[in-house]
Fold:
Amino acid sequence: MSRRTKFIVALIGTALMMTFVIGLSHSISTGFAGFKGGLPFMVIVIVVIALALYDFWEDAIRKDD
Structure:
């Protein structure tokens, strides 16, 4: 797969995953659970997004010289 194609596919996939997880976290925090009930899930979401962004950087952006 070309570098440009890999970048575009990884960007779309990461953006879709982040949109879903952030929306889910927002829904949990503003719903019945409230902020304090949704806080542990928000922490998990932050860690998952950080890992996804690192994987995106490592696979699509970083050059393998």
Q: What stands out?
A: Residues 3-60 form one domain. The mean pLDDT is 88. Helices lie at 3-30, 34-61.
